[in-house]
Structures are given as C-alpha cells and as structure tokens.
Design a protein that fits this description.
- The protein is of the alpha/beta class.
- It has three domains: 164 residues, Rossmann fold (3-Layer(aba) Sandwich), CATH 3.40.50.1000; 144 residues, no CATH class; 121 residues, no CATH class.
- The protein contains 16 helices and 21 strands.
- The strands form five sheets. It has a ten-stranded mixed β-sheet with strand order 1-20-17-16-3-11-12-15-13-14, sandwiched between helices.
- The termini are far apart.
- Belongs to the 5'(3')-deoxyribonucleotidase family.
- It holds the Pfam family 5_nucleotid.
- It comes from Stigmatella erecta.
Length: 497
C-alpha cells in the first residue's frame, strides 16, 4: 500500500517527547481497550451512563430525567470531590477553568475557591480523568451535584459521598457484565473498525519484535473483541492469537507493573467457560494467562527496561507507572488528538491574526508603562527624565489607552474562539488558557511518544528513529510568543520601532 511511503495526514502523526529508536525495541506491549480497540465514545459512554442512572433509580433517586451530555466532560479534567467541581488546570496545577456541577464558576468565585490551591494528584481529593472511560461517571456526577445543591437527593450527603456512590454504582454495573455482554453481542454498534491496525502489528512482528497483550479486561471479553477487531484484516487462516507472543488478561494494572502476583493459565473448556490453572515453568506460546506481574514477564522474555515499549491509553495505569517503576519506553494513545490537530489547523489563520495583534498590544503596553514611569519620576523629582512637556505625555498616554481599548474589542472574540476550540466548555485537550494543560504536562513527562491510534505506526515503520524536537524556554528565540524582556524590540530585526 502506498501509505507506507507517503507522509501521514498531520493528525495521524507520531509525536515524540523523548528520542526513541524503534530498532532498539525488542518487545512491544499493548493495552486493549481504547488502544488496540477503539470504541464509539459517545455510544459506549451513553450506555455506561444509562447503567449508572439505572443503578441510582433502583435506589429511588430522582434521576430519570437526566441524559448523557457528551460535551460536558473531556479527558484530562480533574474532579474536586470535596467541592463538587469539574476543573481544568494548567501544567503547574493552577485552576484555569471550573464548573460547579454543570454551572460555570464566575471569575471571582473561582479565584476565591482556588487562588491558593495547587492541584497535587497524589491527594485523594482530586480525581483525574485519565481515560475516555471516565466521561460517563464525571458527567452524571456533575449533574448530581446540581440536584444535591437543589436539595433533591437523599441526605445528609457531601460531594465526596456523592462521588463514592457514583463510583460504586458504575463498578457494580461493570461487575454485572451487562454492558460488556451487549458489546460482545453487537460489536459493530460500539467498535470503530481500523483495518490498518492488523497490518501495523504484522509489520512489527515480522521485523522481529515480540508482541504482548496486557489488558485488565477478562478473557471472556478479550477473546471475542480481539477476534472482531483484528481477525477480518489478517491473512486468510490467521487469527490474532498468532500475532502475540504473550497474552495476559485480568492484569490488574497498575499493580501488574508494581507488585508480584501469581500467574494462572487460562484453560478454555470449549463450553464458553474458562478455568484457571496455576502456571509453573516457562510461558507457552498462544496460551492466555491471568494476572502475574511485569517482573515475571521480563524474566520470561529475557528483556527489561528500555528494550520494551508499552502502548496504552491510561495516563497512570499504562504510561506513568511503566515509566517510573520499570523504565520501559512508553507510548500514549490519545484518539482525541485527531480532532485537536484538525481544529488547530482550521484556526491557523485566526491564530496568526491574533498573534499579530498581540504583538501590537504588547508594544503599546510597553510604551504606556514607560510614559507612566516618566510621569512618576517627574512628579517625584528623581531619576532621568525626557524633555517632552507633561501635557504631551498625558495626551500620548490617553491615545494609547484608546488604541488598547479598540484592540481588546478586536481581540476578545478571537481569544474566546481560541478557548472554545474542540469543546465549548473546555477548549483544547492540551491547552489551559495560553499554557499547556495538566494533561499535556503529563503527556510530556511520561509518554516518550504519543499518537492517536496504533495504526499510525504504519506510517513510521518498525525501523523508524523518532527524534524529539529541541527543548525550549521563554528566552529561546526559536519559539515565538510570550513577552520578551524588551517588549518594544522587534523580534525579527532586533530594532526598536
């Protein structure tokens, strides 16, 4: 296929934080859900939401009128379980935008609540939405906060109690297995097919990489879903089980990467049931296993650390822990990246205009600051001063003020549009105001590479040398934007206008 040799569309790129030579990778581990298999997010999350709502209706909660709102929540938000708020924070942990329940918090209310707060995700108070599976519970939680505030829920109950109830209700729905049974029965309704994934995995396998499946899903779900997702696109007579050297289900990530647990062989009885048999000795090919640990897996493979790449969608369970504990190389799958890159590209002309007007605004502000300082020195009789008459200084200051007001009126709609790209409440996944979002900071810190789907490896090949861009700080002239030390200096010529 010619796609091997052509550049991918920008949104299908592989983005590199830390240089990665794929030729040095001996084994590639994959998560399953939202990594090898992509779901129709709105369809899945609406159904998960409905199961939570049913569980709450069974407890006589007045929630029958509630409906899933796909625009209310995005990955990377943080739930403040103490206050009942949905938050978007920047890379430093400062809150940049907040909803209380489903209602936007005003500037002053948000400032009062969070001006002295730096979010530390190690604290129990904060729940980070690591994955697309978090959207349904966060949506209904925000709506329930509204009902709690209106006195319509049984009590007494605080916002933390409410979150615990939502969490338990969702867990109960998953434990019952009804949602997964629906998906197995009708995968076409819930799964986004990607025929290219199988070819990308075949390329890696034939290039000598050992392929590993490490998923928290149980065998009864993984088997039919992997068949549906991969088998139709593999060579005739081949199944997905021949692709993978090791298959581990019910892995209990992140504990799989941090603790030692017994490993069991999954024995398929042929009657739809699977039995577990304690494993002893070497792992057998094409045999699924239950539980175990990364340490045991490394010993079986004869590999460790940076010889292994792990690919997953969960920021903590897949990427953070493997990087911190095992020093494996890491790849994060962010399906939303495709919409994000396209939205940024569509906004590029407006972004350029916004940047151009901001340069003028900064120059005017710098001149205004100098004029104010001149007046201050003149009135206090100290320091060097110009010969310009005071009335001229005041006149120029007034003219600048009018220019700035006109500029702000022009910039306002453009800035608002920039803040609403991709989502009307939260904007882009990776930005918080003019800074990187908390999610972007974690991607940068823990994911060596990130991309929107596994099949994007097709464009790179198993032999690619992925190089990270040069790092930058605000003083670095390679990166435009921001206010330099001398705002009135033209960045391109080094001259003062």
């Amino acid at each position: 296929m010619s796609g091997h040799f052509t550049a991918p569309p920008p949104e299908r790129g592989i983005f590199c934080n830390r240089t990665l030579n794929m030729r040095a990778i001996k084994a590639i581990g994959y998560d399953m859900d939202y990594t090898l298999i992509h779901y129709r997010v709105e369809e899945w999350e609406r159904r998960a939401y409905e199961y939570i709502r049913e569980g709450l209706l069974a407890q006589n909660w007045p929630v029958g009128h509630l409906a899933f709102d796909p625009a209310l929540v995005i990955r990377g938000l943080i739930i403040d379980t103490e206050k009942g708020n949905l938050l978007k924070a920047n890379r430093f942990g400062f809150v940049k935008k907040a909803l209380h329940g489903t209602r936007p918090m005003g500037f002053e209310a948000q400032r009062t609540e969070y001006a002295r707060t730096i979010i530390d995700l190690s604290e129990r108070r904060w729940m980070f939405l690591n994955t697309l599976f978090s959207l349904s519970e966060a949506c209904i939680y925000a709506q329930l906060v509204d009902l709690l505030d209106d006195g319509k829920l049984p009590g007494p109950m605080g916002y933390s109690d409410l979150y615990d109830i939502v969490r338990r209700t969702l867990d109960a729905a998953h434990m019952a297995g009804r949602l997964k049974a629906e998906i197995i029965a009708d995968p076409g309704r819930y799964v986004l097919p990607d025929p290219e994934t199988a070819l990308a995995l075949l390329d890696q396998r034939h290039a000598g990489k050992k392929l590993l499946l490490i998923t928290n899903s149980e065998w009864a779900y993984s088997l039919p879903m992997m068949h549906a997702a991969l088998d139709p696109y593999l060579p005739s007579g081949m199944t997905w089980r021949e692709l993978f050297d090791v298959v581990i289900v019910s892995a209990r990530k992140p504990e799989f990467f941090t603790t030692r647990s017994p490993l069991f062989e999954v024995v398929d009885t042929g009657g739809g049931e699977a039995l577990l048999r304690p494993n002893s000795g070497a792992l057998k090919p094409r045999t699924p296993y239950f539980g175990g640990s990364a340490v045991e897996l490394e010993r079986h493979l004869g590999l460790s650390g940076d010889e292994i790449l792990y690919v997953g969608d969960h920021m903590f369970g897949d990427v953070h822990v493997t990087k911190n504990v095992l020093r494996w190389r890491t790849a994060l799958i962010l399906r939303e990246l495709e919409d994000e890159v396209q939205a940024i590209a569509a906004f590029r002309a407006t972004e350029a205009r916004l940047a151009e007007r901001m340069v003028l605004k900064e120059q005017l502000e710098a001149e205004s600051c100098q004029l104010r300082l001149e007046l201050q020195r003149r009135r206090a009789h100290y320091g060097p001063r110009s010969q310009m008459p005071e009335d001229e200084l005041l006149s120029r200051l007034g003219a600048i003020r009018m220019q700035l007001e006109a500029l702000d009126a022009e910039l306002g709609p453009m800035a608002r549009a920039a803040s609403e790209l991709s989502n009307p409440h939260w904007g882009l996944l990776t930005r918080a105001g003019n800074d990187k979002s908390h999610l972007a900071r974690q991607v940068e810190r823990y994911a060596d590479i990130y991309t929107s789907r596994v099949s994007n490896f097709l464009f790179a090949s198993p032999f690619v040398y992925l190089r990270s861009p040069r790092g930058s700080l605000p003083h670095d002239p390679m990166i435009p934007g921001g206010t330099p030390v001398f705002p009135s200096t033209d960045a391109t010529t080094g001259t003062t206008p």
